[in-house]
Structure formats: C-alpha cells, structure tokens
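Lecture notes, unit on protein representations.

Consider one protein chain, 480 amino acids long.
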Amino acid sequence: MGKLPDEKTPKADIIDQCQGDGWRVLLLVSADRLTASVQWVRTSAAGACPPEKVIEFVRGSKLHLSREEDERLPALVRTLVGGGSAVVVAKGSPAEPWKEIDWLIPVGISSLRDYSDETVDLHEVSQFINVRAGQALCVVPASPKDGCSVLGQTLAAPPCPLQLGERVAIDEKSSSRVVALQPGCVKFVGGRLSVEQHLEIPGDLNFKTGNIDFSGDVTVHGNVLDGFHIKSAKNIVIDGSVGMSTVEAGGNLTIKGGVNGGHKGKLVSGGDLQAHYLHMVSVECSGEVMVDVECHDSMVLAMGSVTVSRGGIIGGNVMAGTDVSAGFLGAEMCVPTTVHAGYQAGLDAQVEKTRKNLAHALALVKNLESALARCVDQPGVSSRFPSQRKTQMIQFQTRLGDARLVAKRELASLSSQMRGASLVGATISSAKQVFPKVTLVIDSVCEEEVSDEIAGPVRLALDRDRLAIKATARKRQSAK
C-alpha cells in the first residue's frame, strides 16, 4: 500500500483504487483503521467517472460496510462531482477505554489526619500509604469491549491499566477487589500495583515526604529535618544526619551522619544502634550502642554495651547493661558526666533509694557535728553554759547519736544489697583519660566520683570484697 500524495490527507493509506479514461478513484483508510474515504481524482480534462462505477468499486472492496452505510453510499458518491475532495463512506467502532481505577486507599495523593480543632500539622502529610495484610486496595476494573475496523478486523482493547505485582492478589472472598497479602507500603508505578516491604526516600525527610510510620525496612538517603518522625517495625538506615526529631526502629538503627537533638530529639532501637556522633539526644536501645566520634550531653540507656570508638563521653548520663568503652570520659573543664556500666533497672532503683537515705543521714550527722564542735571540743566552755543551753546541747548530742545509728543502719543495708546482688561484672574502659567530675557506677551497686584525673589506658571494675571501684592499667596497643 502506498501513501496518498495529496497533502490534505497525509495520515491515510491507499488500500485500493480503480481507474478509467481520464479519472481515478482511490479508497483511503485512516491509520487507526476507523475511517474509510473515497476520493475521485481527475487525470484529464475529459475524464468523468460514472457514479455506478464508484459504488460498484466500493462495494467490491475489502470494506466492512454496515447496512446504514451501504444505503447511504449512492448519495455520498454523487457528491464527488468535480473530484479532489474525499468523502467518508464507512466508520469503524473503537475499542472501549478502561475506566479509571476505583481506589479504596488514597493512592497518589497526600493523606491528612483529622484534627478536632480544624488545624493540620504539615509534618503529618505523607505520600506513603501503609497497609495491613488483607486490606482491600482497589476494585478490579471491568473488561471493556473490543472494537472493529472498517475492514472488519477486531481492534483489541488496550491492556488493563492494573497489573498485579508482589504481595497483592484478587480477594478470594470477593473477586471484584484486590487485597494486600502482606503488610507494607503501596507502590503503583507504570500500572503495576505492589506492596513493598522496603521504603526508600531518595532525599531528605521533609515537608514533601512527611512523617513515616511503616511496617518494613526504611532507608533515607538524605537527612531527617527537625520536627519529623520516623517509625518502623524493622530496620532504619539514614545516610545523612538527624536533627531534633524522633526515630523509632523495631530492629537496628543506623545513622551514618550524626545526631543534633537539641535536647528534643529521641532515638529508639529494638536492636543495635550505630551513629557517627550523638549530641544532646535521648537514646533507648535494646542492643548495643556504637558511636564513632563522641557522645556529648546525651541520655543513653542501652541493654547491651556502649562504645565510642575515637572520641569520648562528655556530659550527660550513659547507662549500659554491660560494658562502656570510650577514648576519654568527661572533659578538661570538669563537665559533670555519669557513666554506668552493668545497669540493672530493678537493682538500681532499690540501691538508689538506700543510697539517698544514707546520704541524707550522713548530711544530718555532719550538720550536728558542726554545730556541737565549737562547744564540745573547747575545754571549759560547756561548764559556763546556762542550764537551758546545757539541755539543748544534750538534745543535740542525742540527735547526733540517733543520726549516726541511722547512717550506720543504711550503710549496712547498702552493703548487704551490694554483696547479695547478682552482679554483671561489667567494666568501664578509657583509652586516654578519665577527667574529674565524672561519676562512675558499676553494676548498680558502687558509685564513685573521680576527683583526680586518671591516665589511660585504664579499665575500671568493681572490687566486690571492698565494694569499691578499682582501676587496672591496660597495655597500649603498639602501632603495626
């Protein structure tokens, strides 16, 4: 088949033709095969084609004419007087298009939470739809009808705009619905519907993406900006840094950048936690905490060990279920720092109560001793007191004796708790030094504040016989 040379119909194909003396009749079909036209072309001044020839030519062609089109054909052919123009003699029926998918979840649009005060927190605008297993996702589109070309050929309907991918299927109870087979995040790309169990954010977590609450693994390839919240039932990996945000992982939590929590950020990990540095952030970890550079002014509670590879622990309170290891503890400016190795929640609360009672009793003893020192320690002074003052002094002495008995009883109780405790045997290690104003707690039973700098490398452990912390020098590893 050749292309019609007439510029007026560049998209039509010549499928058949007939000619006579001074004339030619062309049968044209559009590229979509839905329109057929007849064109009469004069080839000489004397050329003239009888209408009957054209009618006979069209009816004898490959066209699939309906009854109505066949009846109209003679009238249409008579309009070809003078040639040049094309007359439509047949039309096909196009295939019906698919209807739009009837979604049962807000796919492709932001989902906003309802607030009773009619305000919207833009942090809660999310582009990710989290679904549970068995949840209905959409209605299965009804199959459209095929079309028919002017040549009688079947024009197949376009492919279904909905293709089933991973973790989705037709509902066994209702064949008209698609359901999620497993929990995850809905993904609909290029007509393919699936439920993903790994959510990847290509850039930062910001107002464009919104908060995330996901049942699978989450990877953020950028930063987590202030005020946002990530929650995952599994692992979370953040390639950038984390600001004043909340990050909760049911599994491991990895932050390749650092964390600047501004005393508002919070990290929760059901597994291990790794970060480049921790600044002013609250940490709760069921596994081990591993930090590259430093842990500064943070509250860290780990059921496993806490390790700062290159830097130190400065300020804040670090509690580990087992060992604590860092380059240095505290700072030259004597920043108050608490490091607790072998933390036991129940024992720690019990011992802390006894320790507070003991501290209160010792403080009372000190105050009473100071008040009586001026009188008791100077010979002859007490004999010059009036009888009323002597009575008050005797009362102070009685109170002092009672306070000493209370302090002795609390000390004995504390010693008993310490000796009867099931100790972890945890240690605190420092590669460089331990600065003053660092409070060391080991196994929740022994607490001491460092008054003089301790040079490293040193390992600090509990001497159970003396109920005191002992320091053992560690050999420096020689550079290879």
